[in-house]
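TEACHING EXERCISE
Course module: macromolecular assemblies
Task: Read the component lines below, then compare them to the predicted structure of the full complex.
Student: A.B.
Group: 4
Components provided:
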Amino acid sequence: MGKVYLTGAGPGDIELLTVKALRVVREADVIIYDRLANPDILKEAKDGCEFVYVGKEDSHHILPQEEINEVIYQNALKHENVVRLKGGDPFVFGRGGEEGIYLRERGIRFEFIPGITSAIAVPEYAGIPVTHRGVTVSFRVVTGHESRNKDHSQIPWENYRTDDTIIFLMGLHRLKVICKKLIEIGKPAEYPVAVISKGTTPDEQTVVGTLENIYEKAKGLPTPALIVVGEVVKLREQLSWFEKA
Ligand code: SAH
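Instructor-supplied answer key:
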């Protein structure tokens, strides 16, 4: 019976992979990977390493989570070193916890290897600091996706009246609703918002607007994309560095 490394692959730029993640990738007998993990990472694997794609992007699972858990488990029965490579960090809307629990219940050893989460790194590549002295003292990372088959919102909108930076993951398809809700709870229509698509990759694109107009401005941007709401968005004017002007 092998060991499973539940490994964060970082947000896209391959150089944002941790040294530890790179080591386990190089030692892996099998790598079970997501659509969000940069596929170039797989080139680091040793000869004979097997690759299993359990692609999922946003909420559109190609394999249901239960099946992914089982794939990881079955591979752990067959292989010594199993790497489960996940975009960003395994615990930030990565379902890494569920995978760990499934393995623990079946007596499989595992390690978690944190990854650089897109929630912080993608705004950073866009020149938007998630906190900034004198502007905001906190930030939240929120899912923009709501489970289907739910009559009412699971997102506690009332809590978002404060001036923390809010980073919505998995929310591009609900951008209009998100902005509308934030205006409803009292944020000004001209409150700054940025949408960042394919962050930390050569295709990164950032669109800046307000709660009122970002939906129109960001139309057609490709996924993965995240939404940053807050005064910190304005700092991009001084801090933008990665994207070509
Ligand atoms: N565990 C991941 C997040 C998984 S949820 C992490 O820590 O980064 C998937 C969501 O992350 C996407 O819907 C998108 O909102 C965001 N995301 C991931 N990679 C991204 C990227 N390179 N650029 C923009 N958003 C990204």
